[in-house]
Amino acid sequence: MFRKFRQKLKDCHQHRKDSRYWHEKIASLLSGKENMPADYEKEIKTFYKQYGLNVSTQWHKRYLDILHMRDVRFIPEDLFYVDIEPRLNNLIYRDGIDDKNMYDLLFKARGVRLPDTVIRNINGYWLDENYELLDPAAAIKLCLNEEKLIIKKTVNSGGGNNIIVLRGAEITGENLRQVFSQLGGNLVVQKLLQQHKLLNEINPASVNTIRIITIMLHNEVLVVQSVLRMGVGASYVDNICAGGMAVGITNKGNLKEYAYDAQNKKQPNHLTTGFLFKDVCLPHYKNVESIAKDMHKRFAQFRLISWDFAIADTGPVLIEFNLKYQGMDCFQIFSERPFFGELTNEVLKELFGKKTN
User: Fold this and answer.
1) What CATH class is the domain 196-323?
2) Domain boundaries, the chain
3) What is the spatial distance between Cα 76 and Cα 189, in angstroms, rounded to a whole number?
4) Under DSSP, is residue 254 helix (H, G, I), strand (E, B) or coil?
5) Which of 1, 153, 212, 233 has fewest C-beta within 10 Å?
6) DSSP H stretches of helix in 133-270
7) Which positions fall inside the Alpha-L-glutamate ligase-related protein ATP-grasp domain (predicted)?
């Protein structure tokens, strides 16, 4: 009994700590902005009160400032990360599968295409694409046979960090050893992906990916968010925190009229290439949806999953999936709607219950 009580105290302290972080974050984002309209604030409070929730309306003010939209169903970021995501995803299982070196074992047998692996390092051991052990010299030799390589950490990575691209004369034994030393263990070396010609038109310097977010609800898997992320300039990565931009995708697979850049400014064209987004139909989008929904059923411990797909001429290529810190705030901006959309009431009711007056 004492152990359970102590755990409750620990959880309560962590809850306060997390909540304080998110409140400080939104306070900094809204510095110097006008106050929230009183009538809108009352509507928001009334909406969330029916689920027993007393939320800060500052996040709604952020979306009002950026999107010029009122919608009580916008999800405050602190509510999402402190109360919603932990209820949806059983994160004690995350570390065991959230490793890119496990993807061949998890997905390839199901016919999901992945980037081609050259070598991998797991817990300090070098292995080839088929998980056969290699000595360090043999691992380097396999890399020297390639013309373009991408090297990335397989655990505890995100935001486009710890990703290195080598081309042509850059692929030498000395450079490879230096990169491996820099990244440490637990990494994968893959052949550089050739993306679909349309995605290449949008920005040829980066691999531009579809982020699709699925939820398990009422005994089915549904799509809650879908956006196209793009690099800007010469950057290889497409993450917003690395200076990229993103545009929402309709349920028919067409791009919306405006993308948003790293400063949350609306852009009708790509900042580097001038590519016009409005109504462009993405190739193989329905295949992306189908794969994400089918694969999600095999990870029922995690009811909310973010999937990143590149698109090759032949179809979707799974780059990674995310089980935590899924970028809720920015996706409400990119998609120009509440995170759960029409499913908001159902999600909140299931997680928190519907309170009666």
Assistant:
1) alpha beta
2) 2-89, 116-191, 196-323
3) 38
4) strand
5) 1
6) 136-144, 173-183, 197-202
7) 86-344
